[in-house]
Write a structure and sequence with these properties.
This protein is mostly helical. It is 66% helix and 0% strand. The chain contains 5 helices and no strands. Helix 1 runs antiparallel to helix 2 and helix 1 runs antiparallel to helix 4. The longest helix is centred in the last third of the chain and has 29 residues.
C-alpha cells in the first residue's frame, strides 16, 4: 500500500491559486518559528505576541479570502469544505485565545500545519478541478496581499 503522504510528483497548482498557496508557505514558517521558540526555551508570552501579530496582519484575512472566494466553488455541504471550516474554527479559537502557554502554542502550530497540508494536498486540488475558468479568474483577482515579516522580535533566530 502506498503512503498517501509520499508524493511522487509535485502538485500542479493552478496559477489562480498560486498566490494563496504562497500564503500557506508563510503560515508553515510560522509553525517552524513557534517550534524554534519552544526549542530555544523562549517565554510563551514572547512567542504569543508574534502569533497575535501574524494572525491580525495576515492569517485572519487569508481565512476570510478562502471562505468567501474559494470554498463556495464546492459548496458548504461538501465534506472537504466542512472539514476545512472546522479546522478554521479551531484555529481561530487557538489564535484568539488569551492563553499563553507552550502547550497551547504547540497545539496551534500542529493544527495549523495539518490544516495547510490538507488544503494543499487535497482541498485545493478539488477546488481547482471543480472551478470554472470564470471562478478561477475571480480567485486570482481577490488576492492582493504580499507577506512582509516586519516583526521586530525575531525570537526564532538562534544567537551564537
Amino acid at each position: 500500500m502506498k503512503n498517501k503522504f509520499i508524493m511522487s510528483e509535485p502538485i500542479k497548482r493552478n496559477e489562480a491559486l498560486k498566490p494563496i498557496s504562497r500564503d500557506h508557505h508563510h503560515a508553515l514558517l510560522l509553525g517552524w518559528k513557534i517550534r524554534q521558540g519552544i526549542k530555544n526555551k523562549i517565554p510563551a508570552e514572547r512567542i504569543k505576541k508574534y502569533v497575535d501579530w501574524f494572525w491580525s496582519s495576515y492569517l485572519s484575512n487569508h481565512f476570510e479570502l478562502e471562505e468567501k472566494n474559494l470554498y463556495p466553488v464546492l459548496g458548504a455541504e461538501h465534506a472537504s469544505i466542512k472539514k476545512a471550516m472546522q479546522h478554521h474554527e479551531k484555529l481561530r479559537n487557538l489564535f484568539l485565545s488569551k492563553e499563553q502557554t507552550i502547550q497551547q502554542l504547540d497545539e496551534l502550530q500542529n493544527k495549523l500545519d495539518r490544516h495547510i497540508r490538507f488544503e494543499e494536498r487535497e482541498l485545493f486540488n478539488e477546488i481547482q478541478n471543480a472551478a470554472t475558468p470564470k471562478q478561477l479568474q475571480e480567485m486570482a483577482a481577490v488576492h492582493n496581499e504580499s507577506f512582509h515579516d516586519n516583526y521586530n522580535d525575531e525570537f526564532w533566530v538562534t544567537k551564537k
